[in-house]
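re: that complex we talked abt at group meeting.

here r the seqs, copy pasted straight from the sheet so there may be weird spacing, ignore it
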Amino acid sequence: MDWNQILSDSGLSEREVSVVNVLAGKPSMKASEVAKELGVTRLDAYKALEDLQEKGMVSVIADRPMRFTCPRIDQAVEQLIEIRRRQLNRIESSFEEIQSSVESSNFEFQEVEAEDNPKFTILKERVRILGRLEKMGNDSESDLVMILGRFGILPLCRNATITSINDAAKRGVRVRVLAQLDKRTVRFYNDLHESIEVRHSEEMEAQGAVMDQSEVIQYLNSDDNPVGKGKNDAALVIESAQFAENQRNLIETIWEEAIPFDTASKRYTEERITDPLKLTLNEGSFLEKIREVLMIEKDLPEEDTPFNIDAFMASGLEISDARKKLNHGGIASLRDFGIDLESLMRQIGNRVGQELAFSLRGISQEIEFLNEMMDWWEHAGLGTLSYDLEPEFHIKVQFSEFPEGGELPVWALDDGIIEGALQSRYPEGGEIAVTREVISKDPEALHVYNLIMA
Amino acid sequence: MVLNIGEVAPEFELETSEGDMFRLSDLEGQWKVVFFFAKSGSPTCKRGCLSFKEQYELFQSLEPSVEVIGISQDTVQQHKKFKKELDLPFPLLSDQERHVAEKFGVPLHLGLFPSKSSFVIGPDNTVHHVYDWLFRPRKHVAQIISALSGDGGQ
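got the structure back, here u go
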């Protein structure tokens, strides 16, 4: 018995054996060098090297051209035996499971197969989908994200799935829930284990789950009744590490923007919005803006200044006049930095308006809603809100005070409030469209909002 | 087009909530406020009618006194119920076909916003003030009183 015989018995082809003989225990070689040694074409050598790579016998060094290495021949054989042993173990355990009539096949085996061949399954009916989610809860090892849309929490809580998800959290799996909170469902989230992080996303309608780096489930259709049997529910299960990773990346982006449960749920428990307010200051290069503000033409002079100890010691202690001016510039300094104060105030106003509309959401009739808005507006002393019927119904926003340069543009805040309230009450794509039209010719009315019936 | 200031108010005859016939000419030579409202049950109309009720004594106490008349498309029965519910001291007239509303040029806004207009008619039977009160029912009553009490009014 020689090494070649052992290698051959281990399942290597004749050519692969020759390649191992050439490479084993030597420094890395190029494919062309291997081909030359064996007296075969470079293409044949490549093919054999590729097959050996798949078997884990040969490694590639990323170089141009690529270089190949192989362990010492005894180590290579040990490696082959180990690979074979693992394969045998898998066959044995799968076989045992089938024999003991266990419904599902060996998980590890499935995972290895899934890595090589992504698989997908379509599940129909809610009970089957929930069953699969329950299995995901049981199988998850490190990470599970549940996407519950608006009402997904309801069927979950009425099913054993919630137990399996809570159990996963208890055994240390990081379980996260992304949902669109609703007044009717908010209390059900209390059924989730305390370590499960829940976040709210306003636009979240989708339902599904991502388990570890292996499996994704995505609802394709769901019945309107969230507590019904869900006969028409359908979901796609995808077993693919890459797909799972891609989905996770997408979810992470939404997760970052989503609002923590405790904050988001206040709109139902305390009837108010307390979400963090994220503002956009402006676009463009702020480095360039500060260069302009500080009147620096270049970052540093290209040539060294004459060597002068006093100058060196003093440098850094000097504050330029432009920088000093900033201290006393007040609001104008902020503008110099390129901070769009109108936009800033408008964004704050939008949020105030959004909260105002939220507080008036119980008013179903539009006339009553607008009446309240107008009363609030005057009560708050923000100016006059009026309306006009020609050429189409619109709300007129008038300001009693005009903004002057150097002042905080509070008018933009007022403007933002009405804009935010109307946009919140009449979202895009709804029956009533709100457009904003600036009437510059009318000095009494800075802005006019048209409330148009779509 | 809505009836303008200075134009003569058209004569009309409508049924009151008590089933009597009411003619504008019944109040010949008097100051009157003819207000058109949308629907008996709607909150803004309720507020509007209640504001007229609250200020009714004031309207009556003005020199010379001012009469108040409400008109809507509601039926006589609906008006009867509404008037009783709010204990309104002035007549409500039923204009189901909008004949009178059209004579006064009361607009129908977008179908969704039923029109509400008020006309202050003088003893000379001409229109002295016109108010649209789609919103702010109480404020519009205040505006009418202010106009009637001021020098520009009566």
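couple things i noticed - Chain A has four domains: 3-78, 111-269, 286-326, 341-453. The radius of gyration of chain A is 34 Å.
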